[in-house]
Amino acid sequence: MNTDSTSSGMAKICRKSVTGHRVPEEGLIPTMKLSHFITSHMEHILVEWETFAKTLRPASDGLTAEALRDHGRQILETIAREIDIHESARQKDDKSRGLVLHNTATSAADEHGAERQEHGFTMLQLISEFRLLRAIVLKLWMPKISQSSEETVREILRFNEAIDKALAESALTYSLQAISAGDASMVIKEQDINLVQLAMDGVYVLSMADLHMNLLTHQVSRANRAVTLQPREFNLLEYMLRNANRALKRDLILKNVWGYQFDPHTNLIDVHISKLRRKIDLNSPLKLVRTVRNIGYMLTDQES
After folding, report:
1. Does domain 34-200 have CATH number 1.10.490?
2. For residue 144, which of 274, 64, 219, 40 has the smallest C-alpha distance?
3. Cis check: omega of the bond before 285, within 30 degrees of 0
């Protein structure tokens, strides 16, 4: 037994582990770093990844274990490295505002997206793989945490950022390859590809005042209250957020939200604007959706 004096003058009994490091007698095992956990439990994680991939039929039919795991090891190794990369306060601020440079080198996630598209997996199946990967790692690691700390929170945040980046890279490569191959079953708009690129750069939340829209999860909130939108309402709000503080003519809204090249002379826009107002402005003192006389509509938080 050895004793170490603490700052309070109390003696803390410790024992030596087989590696010579002091371990508290209380029985708590120091929390394993998430990056180390991923690399040391790689096979367990990959087995669950492979098992799940088998269920993604019919694309998974006939694929070998190696093909089902496709680039999984390399993706996890990259994620583990990115968790441990130190970021300065300036780098964190730049990332939050999207001011980061994207590495143009082909990544394992890029190659995974290309392979999955080639084997006939759908985009939703590709996305579900990364959702599962996130769940597997956290499910296995969380019970190993002896005590939550600021470092634990930092590691989880960096892990989620790394997963989101890998997903965005895979989805973008999948989409571009599908377009290049002339896949008629893939209806991919330019704005969808731009969305994936934004996600790669860490910018996938559009905000105004207390209104927030997550472009990846399609979650919308106002003053911390969840707002449920129909797909067309979501697209309309997204277009207005991307063009915040600008008076939008009706023909531009019809073209960019509905894809119409002409005005059908209906109250289509007015009906959807009315629904948006009820959902995001009704219970808020600050009204964001404004009517611009003789022009159209505007989303703004500026005083009129």
Report:
1. yes
2. 40
3. no
CA dihedral 19, 21, 25, 29 (to 10 degrees): -80
Question: Would you mind telling me the total number of residues written for the chain in this entry?
Answer: 304
Q: Is residue 106 within a helix (H) or strand (E), and if so which, with residue range? A: none
CA pair distance 190, 202, nearest whole angstrom: 19
Per the DSSP assignment, residues forming a β-bridge with 208 are 211
- The one-letter code for the residue type at 291 is T
Phi, then psi, of 211 in degrees rounded to 5: -100, 130
Tokens (6 digits) for 10:
């109390």
Residue type, 289: V
CA distances from 215 to 57, 109, 192, 202, 241 (A): 27, 20, 10, 11, 11
Nearest to 181 by CA among 112, 119, 259: 119
- Fold identical between 34-200 and 216-299? no
The angle that helices 123-141 and 150-180 make with each other, rounded to 10 degrees, is: 160
Domain ranges of the chain: 1-29, 34-200, 216-299
Confirm if 28 and 146 have CB atoms less than 8 A apart.
Answer: yes
Question: Class for domain 216-299, per CATH?
Answer: mainly alpha
Q: CA gyration radius for the chain?
A: 25
Nearest Cα residue to 280 out of 291, 271, 289: 289
- Give the global pTM: 0.51
**45-97: per-residue pLDDT in tens?**
999 999 999 998 898 899 999 999 889 999 999 999 988 887 666 655 555 44
The label of the residue with tokens 């119409």 reads: 260
Cβ atoms of 286 and 301 closer than 8 Å:
yes
What is the strand order of the sheet 289-292 is part of? Answer: 248-249, 296-299, 289-292
